[in-house]
Structure formats: C-alpha cells, structure tokens
Amino acid sequence: MTRRERQELIDKGLLLPLMEEFYTIQGEGYHKGTAAYFVRIGGCDVGCHWCDVKESWLAELHPPTETEKIVENAVKYSNTIVVTGGEPLMWDMNPLTEQLKAKGVQTHIETSGAYKLSGDWDWICLSPKKNKLPTEEVFAKAHELKCIIYNKDDFRFAEEQAAQVNKDCILYLQPEWSKRDKMMPQIVDYVMANPKWKVSLQTHKYLNIP
After folding, report:
1. Where, by residue number, does substrate bind (predicted)?
2. CA distances from 59 to 16, 43, 66, 166 (A)
3. What is the CATH number of the domain that holds 23?
4. CA separation, residue 183 to residues 178, 179, 187 (Å)
5. In which domain, by residue range, is 46 found?
6. Which of these, 38, 32, 127, lies nearest to 82 by C-alpha position?
7. What's the rounded Cα separation, in Å, for the pair 168 and 170?
8. 17 is annotated as contributing to ligand binding
9. 119: how many CB neighbours lie within 10 A of its CB?
C-alpha cells in the first residue's frame, strides 16, 4: 500500500490510529461499574496540561489499524464499546460505528466535542476543554456532560458549558486525579448547593484497574 492510498483510507475512517484496546470496568460517569471494551484512538491537539494519556496525542506513534479488525476484536469481549482518545472525533467515526452497530453492540464515545460529530452513538460523554470548545451539534446531542475540576475557575467554566447542553443531559463534576484531595471537598459543597450536578469519580483508579 502506498502512502497516498493509506492516507485515503485514514481520511475515510477505514484505518484508525489505534493506541490501545482493553476490556475493563467503566470507571466514570453514568455507566460507571459497567463492563465495557475500550478502544483508544491516537491523536489529540486539545492539549490539556493535566492529561493522563499524553502519549495519545501524536497519532503518528500509533499504527493505522483496519476498522474491521478493531470491531472483530472488540465484539469478542463486550456488547458495550467505548471509543475514547486522544480525541476520536479528529477522525471519521462513521465506518467504525456502522460496523459495530451491525454487530448489535452499544456504541459509546468520550470526546471533548471540539471536532465535527461523526458516528452513530448510543451514548455521548462530552468532556469539554477550555483550549478548544465543543461544537453546537455535540452540545445538542450529548447524553452526559463531564467537567473536570482542576481549580476554582473550572466551576465557572462548567456552568458555561451546562448552559449549552440539551435539557436531558446529565451533569457531572469530576476532580482531576492529582487534585482530588484538594478539590473534592469543594466539589461536594458545590453539588450540595447546586444539585443539578452530580459527582463523578475515576473509580477505576481506586480499583487499580485500567
């Protein structure tokens, strides 16, 4: 395959830079505690300084993998497939989700929403970042809003994002892992004062699993 042919397949979403894939327990948000197969796609230019998977940022480091192979492997393990990153919406997600849906599985995505929404999703977890804001479309379609709290200003940012999502979207505040001891008491007080929000924890880290 020539470089041009490979790039054409990448542009069509038929090849994706696969960083890793693993079967585990969903640790965050609405589906926490659910067994799920995670597909982590490389590539992200949002650039959060506290990101705990910075190795995902450079798509070139991760091998372009046929979507058929990703699907074939994923459906062996679970009927809930979570696509995450990096930022998966940097790539065309339509071929991947079409093939997953054809297998009868649930498709979930975790995204900053900074790129055009593609793919057929049963659940969209929107985790917006200040560096690159979400699109109007993903605000309208998100099932849950997960705002990461690193400092006090993030409460303001969270409210700005919550004002833009649809009325059925579930709202979560989640402490950034390295700041959890400092920020958790503030999050608890904030949620008690503003009960439209819920607390989300990275329970998989407490369980010491991926």
Report:
1. 25-27, 40, 84, 210
2. 9, 4, 15, 32
3. 3.20.20.70
4. 10, 6, 6
5. 3-206
6. 38
7. 6
8. no
9. 22
What's the pLDDT band for 99 if we cut at 50, 70, 90?
Answer: very high
Q: Is 178 annotated as a binding residue?
A: no
Nearest to 27 by CA among 82, 71, 107: 82
What is the total count of domains within the chain? Answer: 1
84 is in an annotated binding site: yes
In degrees rounded to 5, what are phi and psi of residue 131? -65, -30
Annotated binding residue 25: yes
- Is 92 a known ligand-binding residue? no
Cα 47 to Cα 73: distance, rounded to the nearest angstrom: 30
Q: Is 56 annotated as a binding-site member?
A: no
What is the 8-class DSSP label of residue 55?
G
pLDDT in tens, 54-83: 888 999 899 999 999 999 999 999 999 999
Measured CA to CA in angstroms, residue 58 lies from 84, 91, 94 at distances of 15, 13, 22
Point out which residues pair with 84 in neighbouring strands: 40
95 in a known ligand binding site: no
Reduce the DSSP state of residue 25 to 3 states and report it.
strand
Q: Is 48 assigned a ligand-binding role in the annotation?
A: yes
Q: Which long-range contacts (CB under 8 A, 24 or more apart) does 46-51 make?
A: 46/87, 46/112, 46/114, 46/129, 46/131, 46/132, 47/131, 48/129, 48/131, 48/148, 50/148, 50/150, 50/176, 50/178, 50/179
pTM for the predicted model, two decimal places = 0.94
